[in-house]
Amino acid sequence: MPVKNETEYLCKFRDILNNKYGIFYPDSKMGLLRIKLDKCIARAGVSSYEEYYLLLHSNKKHFIRFVNQITVNKTEFSASPSSSIF
Q1: How many CB atoms lie within 10 A of CB 43?
Q2: Can you tell me the distance from the alpha carbon of 13 to that of 25, in angstroms, rounded to the nearest whole number?
């Protein structure tokens, strides 16, 4: 059965993460997954979820980059020197 819309592709990406890595995005977090995927798509230079899905299945380097970008959160800390405890 062909995938026809963005929501179906989001579910396919979610299934990949869940089936291969045990990372599950519940429906309440699909907006977060969409935001992360949109960034991945822009970085890859493709214009649709379908193109990106096909790229991931044909290019291992892009697949690894996808997993890293979706699963790794970057945390930054900023403090003024006067607020430092140490």
Answers
A1: 13
A2: 10
Please, what is the average pLDDT of the chain?
Answer: 86
Q: Whole-angstrom distance between the N-terminal and C-terminal Cα of the chain?
A: 60
Instruction: Give the C-alpha separation, 41 to 34, whole Å.
Output: 10
The pTM of this model reads 0.75
Number of H helices, E strands in the chain: 4, 0
Report how far residue 39's alpha carbon sits from residue 86's, in angstroms, rounded to the nearest whole number.
37
What does the block give as tokens for 32? 């977060």
Task: Report the alpha-carbon distance of residue 9 to residue 3 in Å, rounded.
Answer: 7
Chain length of the chain: 86
